[in-house]
Design the sequence.
């Protein structure tokens, strides 16, 4: 039964399990929600093509978010080690890095070495009626006028005055922040938390907004220094 | 040489587009240029009234665009100022009778006859705005020192930018006393938000109301500060780009101040 399902899926979506040669081994990208039988079958197909190259190679298993999928990682790691004698199976390093509980023993300069930028960086004035949507982080070098709208999947950083509406962490990332040199927005939203009718500060300062206990808090960035506590620089 | 088509716009209504069009048009004509001012506010025409030419309308822009009359027939010659012509709007139609393509074609003809074609854009950003902006080479943005006006002007800059036009700014109805006391946005505040080139600053002037009601061109009134400001703006539009921008100053004369206290003059 599993085979049949696997075959069907295979025809529909060829690229659900992908193999790519990287500097010192192979990178396997797959969706952990697929049936285990199917994944193993695909891995067998891909690794058979590699023949002796798989021997003693380092394999990186990229399954997106690792949380909740430890079991499948372990089982696939065992599968590859037993069947193809690969040297090691690991998950991408930046996932480790975000997890602060684990002792860190990483080559620091390499952590973000191969990290492609997730930020949309825009220079200039954003005017009333304009709407800028960024998949992840949004950086504006310039002022954001009242009546304009910024929407980002991650953080919004403004090197200038923010007088418009800013929606960070859309749709549900409440870890996101909104930072501006002149912080005087009409309305802000982080994840699902909305702050409308913000008090008008007479002297706009370098401030940032973040979610704390289910509400939006605006604080002085220099005094609070929210990222000063992080031991290591991490990819955000 | 072909003439220039300049649209005078603002987004918000009631900030002085029509007054500015009439005044700048008259001032350019006084500089010796062939000028046509075109009322684009079809259905709500005003420019003819402001210019005192209401009673001489026979044909309108709609007739001219639709080919029912010649451009020369629709263009009313002003009798006080030579070289100044008005192409009035039709009061009985609405904005949908014209489309941007027609206007581009029509302005092509106007360019041949006139050095300057000033289009008085209606308020709003709908059809009337599109019709006015489509044929324009340049744009002049009128803004008063009020937040609502600045907000709309900002939006219009964005819309004009999408059509590759960067407008020049006129800040209208400045009350220097209120700016000095901090009750009104200063022109610096407006320019800071809009960040476009400044073309001129026009002070609040009661002469404007008199001129509008009587139909006497503002620029012909000798003691009108706004009229002088518009003449300087026209000179800048006419190529004297180095003419310094005069900042409206608070009243200095004792009698003017007394007049203001008891309610005359301002």
Sequence:
């Amino acid at each position: 039964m599993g085979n049949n399902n696997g075959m069907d899926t295979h025809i529909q979506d060829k690229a659900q399990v992908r193999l790519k040669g990287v500097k010192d081994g192979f990178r396997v990208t797959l969706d952990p929600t697929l049936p285990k039988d199917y994944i193993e079958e695909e891995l067998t197909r891909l690794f058979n093509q590699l023949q002796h190259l798989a021997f003693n190679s380092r394999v990186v298993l990229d399954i997106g978010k690792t949380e909740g999928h430890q079991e499948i990682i372990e089982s696939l790691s065992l599968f590859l080690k037993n069947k193809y004698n690969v040297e090691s199976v690991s998950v991408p390093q930046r996932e480790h890095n975000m997890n602060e509980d684990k002792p860190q023993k990483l080559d620091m300069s390499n952590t973000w070495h191969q990290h492609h930028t997730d930020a949309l960086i825009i220079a200039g004035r954003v005017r009333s009626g304009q709407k800028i949507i960024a998949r992840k982080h949004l950086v504006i070098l310039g002022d954001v006028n009242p009546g304009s709208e910024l929407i980002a999947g991650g953080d919004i950083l403004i090197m200038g005055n923010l007088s418009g509406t800013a929606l960070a962490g859309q749709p549900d990332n409440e870890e996101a922040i909104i930072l501006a040199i002149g912080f005087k927005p009409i309305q802000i939203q982080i994840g699902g938390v909305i702050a409308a009718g913000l008090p008008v500060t007479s002297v706009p300062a370098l401030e940032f907004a973040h979610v704390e206990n289910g509400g939006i808090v605006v604080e002085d960035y220099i005094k609070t220094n929210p990222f000063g506590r992080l031991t290591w620089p991490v990819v955000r | 040489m072909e003439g220039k088509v300049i649209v005078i716009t603002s987004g918000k209504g009631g900030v002085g587009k029509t007054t500015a069009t009439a005044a700048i048009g008259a001032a350019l004509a006084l500089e010796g240029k062939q000028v046509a001012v075109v009322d684009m506010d079809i259905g709500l025409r005003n420019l003819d009234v402001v210019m005192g030419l209401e009673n001489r309308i026979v044909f309108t822009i709609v007739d001219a665009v639709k080919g029912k009359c010649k451009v020369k027939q629709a263009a009313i010659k002003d009798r006080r100022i030579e070289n100044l012509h008005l192409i009035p709007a039709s009061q009985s139609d609405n904005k949908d009778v014209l489309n941007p393509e027609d206007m581009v074609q029509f302005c092509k003809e106007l360019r041949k006859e006139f050095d300057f074609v000033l289009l008085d854009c209606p308020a709003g950003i709908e059809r009337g705005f599109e019709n006015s902006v489509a044929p324009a080479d340049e744009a002049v943005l009128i803004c008063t020192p009020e937040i609502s006006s600045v907000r709309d002007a900002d939006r219009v800059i964005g819309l004009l930018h999408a059509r590759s036009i960067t407008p020049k700014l006129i800040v209208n109805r400045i009350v220097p006393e209120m700016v000095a006391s901090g009750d009104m946005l200063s022109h610096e505040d407006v320019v800071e938000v809009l960040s476009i080139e400044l073309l001129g600053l026009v002070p609040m002037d009661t002469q404007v109301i008199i001129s509008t009601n009587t139909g006497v061109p503002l620029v012909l009134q000798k003691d009108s500060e706004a009229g002088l400001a518009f003449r300087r703006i026209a000179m800048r539009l006419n190529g004297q780009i180095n003419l310094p921008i005069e900042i409206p100053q608070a009243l200095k004369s004792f009698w003017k101040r007394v007049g203001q206290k008891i309610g005359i003059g301002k």
